[in-house]
Specification:
The complex is a heterodimer of chains A (500) and B (260). Chain A is of the alpha/beta class and 500 residues long. Chain A folds into 3 domains: 14-81, no CATH class; 91-269 and 438-492, Rossmann fold; 276-423, no CATH class. Chain A is built from 19 helices and 8 strands. Chain B has one domain. In chain B, 62% of the residues lie in helices and 3% in strands. Chain B is built from 11 helices and 2 strands, in the order αααααααββαααα. In chain B, strand 1 (174-177) and strand 2 (181-184) form a beta hairpin. Chain B starts with a helix and ends with a helix. The chains are: A alpha/beta (500), B mainly alpha (260). Chains A and B meet through helix 2, helix 4, helix 10, helix 11 and helix 13 of A and helix 1, helix 2, helix 3 and helix 11 of B.
């Protein structure tokens, strides 16, 4: 910024560009045709064609447009900051998402879709308890005509049909894409049948698994029915965004797809920072809560009190916003705890599944074959005690050391391995590649607890103009907000981000 | 023309001073806005080491091994039979038909709701359910429509299980019933009583047919699965049995407490 202040002509050029955009938007528009959303500012087509002589116009509508564009100049910077996402508490946004009335309005439409399995990739030696996930599965939504295909990778613990993926599917399907939805490498089904090592968390390795499954999925889709594809796209959110970046990098080497656009939604930048914060959320200080039992009783009592005054139990989308307006509103600490618990559940699932598949014997005694009728509750309890950090220490580090034995002292080796592990599997590992990857963009929030100031700086420095940062939204809370969806599609359709 | 000139100059000036266009949004750390326990606090110890602190998951489940078998069976049944059937149902029928069918069977349940509200001496709910029954059976064409809800009397189910609870009967062991899923012994007994009451009273002559005619029973069953808003796949976890058991028992407790 200081550079710009010193060199005024540069500022001038930037502003002319911004100003020109104001007019050209009317023609190309940020409004994806399929979406019915409040357009930012309506401008008439005729006006733009006449731009050079608009000062002379006596037509009131054109003069009105002029005033609007002028005022945009005035408040240009302010306008780019005027992001009206209605939830300013990042924890509430994360838990409750976008209030229904501010969500993008998607047309109710029939999606042609099917869940398909990859029989060739079936795992042979999985314990009986995993009978339902021995075959990797994915979800395909196809258009009847030739169209580009987009892969969507789910976030931490998410299966291919988790609600955020389903939402993104509808957005892109409506915009004319074929869609293939892929489970997160950390999800239960993927740990069993998608992962070669059954120890998810090493981004490089996970991405190779993802890449393999993506190729197999396309083959399977084409044997299922004639899907005509004329372009490849990729997106992912949260941990899925980090995976997407690594997959995109892999594809730039192996050149199987040649992605036209890759969009990362709220990726972790430093894995270490992300898991530290996620683990810490469970330590939020809520009066009266000092262990997990009081924790659940606490929420249960609060909910019961709320329902009792409201005389009914309606667990619908807007319920949490209504609770927040009532005297039973959840505090920041309570919301933080809820988020912490839900992530902890994901770690517990991953930890147990990994242990049952590998017999690393952290939870299940060696060679003990769990049957369907065996209680898993004791393992569940034990697994719930394991944080992300504990998972890294108990599963990933021993595995990495086993792959590449180090002969220095045990203590030093572990801490060195840990540092190396985080370095090699974070977004910053791809810094050089990302700087030149013109087709990869990122969207993030300035109040997302999975990054920090350093991470945000990294994103700004690395992505340049291929970045869109929103001041609000928490972690994925603004995914369904109409402006975010507009920007997402704008980037995918090659228009870049507005005022980036 | 001079006006245009002034405007143009003004614009140039504004553009020159408009230096904020590329400004970065600073990070606002949400972690700073939350109060945390100290790291050496007991809570962390609790989360990381003490297994007895996980006792919130415990539910009285003496038949667990049998229940887990049934649970696995139900899952298979759901994935390979019920869900495809419901999908087919959604494809071949327009939505107003499905809504009508759901209303129709819901209206039949109103009979047991009236009875149980009366047994619980809940005058207000008895009256409300009775008026729903009358309005929907007449204006609503034998229950195919639900005009009562639009008149401000929403559906609120009451069952014999809740009546038993009201008079102090505990939930008893947790059960996974083949096909229909999670129940407590008390609530599944209540269900049997409710169904036989429906059959016995035979309101509009339908219930006896529902159980006698396979076609009607099939529609009853499809509608039942169609109106259950959840799927086993919602819990993509190796601990789905534990999670569903926990949520079911908590939800029932919540319902009963709210009714108090």
């Amino acid at each position: 910024m200081s550079k710009r202040k010193a060199f005024c002509p540069a500022v001038f050029v930037v502003n002319v560009v911004a100003w020109a955009k104001c007019f050209s938007n009317a023609q190309s528009g940020y409004q994806p045709s399929a979406l019915t959303e409040p357009p930012p500012i309506q401008r008439t087509k005729g006006f733009c064609h006449r731009a050079p002589i608009f000062f002379l116009s006596r037509r009131p509508d054109i003069r009105k447009q002029l005033v609007r564009c002028l005022s945009l100049l005035f408040v240009g910077p302010a306008l780019s900051w005027a992001y009206d996402f209605p939830v300013s508490n990042p924890f509430l946004a994360t838990v409750a998402g976008t209030p229904p009335e501010q969500q993008v309005k998607l047309n109710p439409m029939k999606v042609r879709e099917a869940i398909l399995g990859l029989a060739d990739e079936t795992v042979e030696n999985a314990p009986d308890i995993f009978w339902d996930v021995t075959k990797p599965r994915f979800k395909l939504a196809w258009q009847e005509k030739k169209a580009p295909l987009i892969f969507i990778i789910a976030g931490t613990g998410g299966r291919f049909d988790t609600s955020k993926v389903e939402f993104l599917k509808r957005v892109y399907y409506q915009a004319g894409f074929h869609v293939i939805q892929i489970s997160s490498p950390t999800s239960y089904d993927f740990v069993v049948s998608g992962s070669n090592t059954h120890r998810p968390g090493l981004t490089q390795q996970d991405s190779e698994d993802l890449y393999r499954l993506m190729k197999a999925s396309v083959e399977r889709a084409q044997s299922f029915r004639k899907v005509e594809i004329n372009g490849w796209y990729l997106t992912g959110y949260s941990l899925g965004a980090l995976n997407a970046a690594f997959v995109a990098q892999l594809d730039s080497e192996q050149k199987v797809f040649g992605f036209e656009r890759v969009l990362l939604l709220n990726p972790p930048v430093s894995l270490q920072r992300s898991i530290d914060n996620l683990d810490r959320l469970l330590m939020a200080d809520v009066p009266g809560v000092d262990d997990s039992t009081t924790l659940f009783n606490h929420f249960f009592d609060k909910l019961a009190d709320y329902f009792r005054t409201h005389k009914s139990i309606d667990l619908d989308e807007s319920m949490l916003f209504q609770v927040q307006k009532s005297p039973y509103a959840l505090s920041r600490e309570e919301l933080a705890l809820l988020i912490g618990v839900s992530f902890r559940l994901s770690v517990a699932s991953m930890y147990f599944t990994s242990d049952a598949m590998t017999w690393d014997s952290n939870l299940i005694p060696k060679d003990f074959k769990l049957k369907r009728s065996d209680s898993r509750t004791p393992y569940f309890k034990k697994a719930m005690l394991c944080s992300f950090q504990c998972y890294v220490d108990k599963v990933l580090i021993p595995y990495v050391i086993e792959q590449k034995p180090v002969h220095s002292s045990q203590e030093g080796a572990t801490s060195k391995q840990r540092r190396l592990l985080f370095e090699q599997n974070s977004l910053s590992h791809l810094e050089v590649w990302l700087k030149n990857a013109r087709h990869v963009g990122v969207m993030h929030n300035a109040d997302d607890f999975i990054i920090d100031q350093k991470g945000l700086d990294f994103l700004y420095d690395t992505f340049g103009r291929r970045i869109k940062i929103y001041p609000l939204g928490g972690h994925m809370g603004n995914l369904q907000y109409h402006e975010n969806v507009r920007d997402m599609l704008g980037f995918m359709k090659g228009k870049g981000f507005p005022d980036a | 023309m001079p006006r245009a000139g002034i405007l143009f100059t003004l614009m140039l000036v504004l553009m020159t001073f408009n230096v904020n266009a590329g400004q970065r949004i600073p990070y606002s750390n949400p972690m700073d806005t939350v109060k945390f326990h100290d790291s050496d606090d007991e809570l962390l110890e609790g989360w990381h080491h003490k297994i007895d602190r996980m006792k919130f998951m415990d539910v009285y489940d003496p038949l667990e091994s049998f229940n887990r078998q049934v649970f696995a069976f139900n899952r298979q049944l759901d994935r390979y039979f019920l869900e495809p059937v419901v999908q087919l149902y959604e494809t071949v029928t327009p939505s107003f038909v499905r809504v009508g069918v759901a209303n129709f069977f819901q209206n039949l349940k109103e009979v047991s709701t009236v009875l149980n509200s009366a047994l619980q001496f809940d005058g207000e709910r008895t009256l409300k359910s009775a008026s729903r029954l009358v309005i929907n059976s007449t204006l609503g064409m034998l229950g195919l429509f639900d005009p009562a809800t639009s008149m401000g009397i929403p559906h609120k189910r009451n069952e014999f299980g809740s009546t038993l609870a009201k008079y102090g009967v505990g939930a008893g062991p947790y059960l996974v019933v083949p096909v229909i899923g999670p129940y407590s012994l008390r609530d599944v007994s209540g269900l049997v009583v409710d169904l036989s009451a429906e059959d016995h009273i035979d309101f509009t002559g339908v219930p006896s047919q529902v159980f006698a005619e396979p076609e009607v029973f099939a529609i009853y069953g499809i509608n039942y699965r169609y109106t259950v808003p959840m799927s086993y796949d919602d819990f993509s976890s190796p601990f789905s049995y534990d999670m569903i058991r926990f949520l079911y028992t908590r939800k029932r407790k919540l319902e009963l407490r709210v009714n108090e």
